[in-house]
Design a protein that fits this description.
Helix content is 28%, strand content 27%. The structure holds flavin-adenine dinucleotide (FAD).
Length: 467
């Protein structure tokens, strides 16, 4: 089998590589950079991505290294204006085991993804840019690191400036908002505690210093100074002292710094023949709401099992569903993050369910035509909720891995668990699980490898009994 060529080893490319590796699909993961990305920028891991990472075998180490978001403390100069939570912490439930956002600097998340990939026998080829490609009916010829490779498919996970997207001639529709710029950097400093996300909302623009969970560093967000693209540590010190009025707050080390320019753009196609776009290569937007990395990870998670299935003989049409399912999600994310920018400016930063990505659904799409809806509102295309079984196991443990899962809601567990043809069949006798799924006895739910309901159905007899 020819390998899948993945261009770009950010969070999107790494996730796809892990998913292919655990399915024994050959791939090459190349990155133009000579070394791993060193910045914290995408630091918010949303609840749905935590579930994805659990399935991929990454979550435990992410939880060990990451941590919760601290409260925000707002100041005017040295005066404390007040504290508030970014979001109200929610209790874990059987259905939603990870209800709260997790903070993990992007460099660490990527490093843990590389660690998991290495366990599966894979590695990033750094210093190996994709510099050209052509495609025909059977594959892709690509030049990587100066060598020609033949691949079954090419996935452009090569970020907002995507070479793959530009070479395909796919438009990046939307706008660049020149007036929205900010410095984002990682620093060591003295004079501030790590219990709060310290913010100075007034002045020449908001300045914030967020203690990065699992590190001794802070993420700085600051208005960019005029006349200089990236200030030095001394220049940043001036900015910070002017905004905070605190002579005791000393920046001691600058680890990474970049200048962010707001782009709100997305493609109108995720696929051209045997070439796909994923992550920032397909959609970019404001960091408000912490959606970008998460959306890229979930693009990859949607594409991985489909690529594997088609390479194993399923019809190519399955790959068409990638765009059909993920393009509307990106459009929603662009809208959401733009709304949050306005709301944050007017009301301060508060987050709720709208950013947790648990309600993303592929309902009505090509793999989930409109159909029966359960008493708790579940329908094909929705995320399959977790639940606790009588023997202590969780449904997510049954889902974990590259297979489909068929849940048969019955009364007897005499039927042994069965895995055949990539489908694991489990009889669910627990009434509590039936209640949370809102289904009568006799119902069947088919859970896709990416944890969404492929079907949820009830036999005619069971439907009659219920209703
Ligand atoms: C200030 C800020 C804060 C953010 N906060 C959040 C947040 O809290 N939560 C969140 O979800 N997101 C956040 N984001 C967004 C997040 O950082 C991005 O969405 C994420 O990095 C996208 O991942 P990616 O893998 O698609 O692309 P990237 O991370 O950009 O990775 C692309 C990779 O492709 C490589 N590459 C480029 N060209 C080539 C080529 N020709 N050949 C081979 N390799 C190539 C690059 O070297 C790079 O490693 C934030 C962004 C910013 C700027």
């Amino acid at each position: 089998m020819l390998p899948v060529l993945i261009a770009g080893a950010g969070p999107t490319g790494l996730t796809l590589a892990i998913d292919l590796a655990r399915r024994n699909i050959p791939f090459r993961l190349v990155d133009a950079a000579t070394e791993p990305f060193a910045g914290s920028r995408g630091k918010g891991i949303q609840p749905r991505t935590q579930e994805v990472f659990e399935d991929l075998g990454v979550l435990a180490r992410l939880l060990a290294h990451g941590g919760p978001y601290p409260q925000m403390r707002a100041y005017r100069g040295t005066e404390v204006l007040g504290d508030h939570r970014l979001f109200e912490p929610r209790e874990a439930t059987d259905a939603v085991p990870y209800p709260n956002g997790l903070m993990s600097p992007q460099w660490r998340t990527e490093s843990l993804l590389r660690e998991r990939l290495a366990e599966l026998g894979g590695a990033v080829e750094f210093g190996t840019p994709l510099t050209g490609f052509t495609q025909d009916a059977d594959g892709v010829n690509a030049t990587v690191g100066g060598h020609t490779v033949r691949a079954s498919y090419l996935v452009g996970a090569d970020g907002g400036r995507s070479f793959v997207r530009k070479t395909l001639g796919v438009d990046f529709l939307g706008e660049t908002i020149e007036t929205q710029q900010m410095l984002v950097g990682d620093l060591r400093l003295t004079g501030l505690d790590r219990d709060f996300w310290h913010a100075w909302p007034g002045g020449s623009g908001p300045l914030a210093l967020c203690p990065l969970a699992g590190t001794d560093t802070f993420q700085l967000i600051a208005p960019p100074p005029d006349g200089v693209e990236l200030p030095t540590l001394a220049g940043l010190q001036e900015l910070v002292t002017a905004a905070t009025g605190r002579a005791d707050l000393r920046l001691t080390e600058l680890i990474w710094l970049s200048r962010y320019r707001a782009n709100v753009r997305m493609v109108d196609r995720y696929r051209v023949g045997r070439v796909f776009l994923a992550g920032d290569a397909a959609h970019v937007h404001s960091p408000a709401g912490g959606q970008g990395l998460n959306t890229g990870v979930q693009d990859a998670y949607n594409l991985g099992w489909k690529l594997a299935a088609v390479l194993s003989g399923e019809p190519d049409e399955l790959l068409e569903t990638y765009q059909a399912e993920r393009l509307p999600v990106a459009a929603d994310v662009l809208g959401l993050s733009s709304r949050l920018v306005e709301r944050d400016a007017a009301e301060g930063i508060r987050r709720g369910k709208e950013t947790d990505q648990l309600d993303i659904s592929y309902r009505g799409g090509p793999l989930a035509p409109a159909g029966w809806q359960s008493a708790t509102g579940l329908a094909a295309g929705d995320r399959a909720p977790d639940a606790r079984l009588a023997d202590g196991r969780r449904l997510f443990e049954l889902f974990r891995g590259p297979h489909w899962t068929r849940l048969e809601f019955g009364t007897t567990s005499a039927t042994p668990e069965l895995t055949s043809q990539n489908v694991r069949t489990v009889v669910i006798t627990e009434e509590s699980v039936r209640a949370s799924y809102g289904v009568p006895e006799g119902a069947v739910a088919l859970v896709r490898p990416d944890g969404y309901l492929g079907a949820i159905e009830v036999s005619a007899r069971a439907a009659h009994t219920v209703g």
